[in-house]
Amino acid sequence: NKTGEEVGMGSLVETNRGLFFIAVGLGKVLFDGGKEVMVISGASPIGQFLMGKRKGYSDAFRGNDYELLDIH
What we know:
There is one protein chain. The protein is mainly β. The chain contains one helix and six strands. It has a six-stranded mixed β-sheet with strand order 3-4-2-1-6-5. A hairpin with a 3-residue loop joins strand 3 and strand 4. It is globular, with a radius of gyration of 11 Å.
């Protein structure tokens, strides 16, 4: 995965609904002074929704609007 281009395994995805790390599904993890990051599998429903998307993408997933603000 080339940082910032598109979401793939190992991406940290910043959305309007929080941070997601695409790896192995672990659930909510606290980082850096209590910042919540959802560690999800690329095969999970939300993982599949995010995979391959680029910064600026927006769409609804399960009735919630998501906007990809940045990919790290």
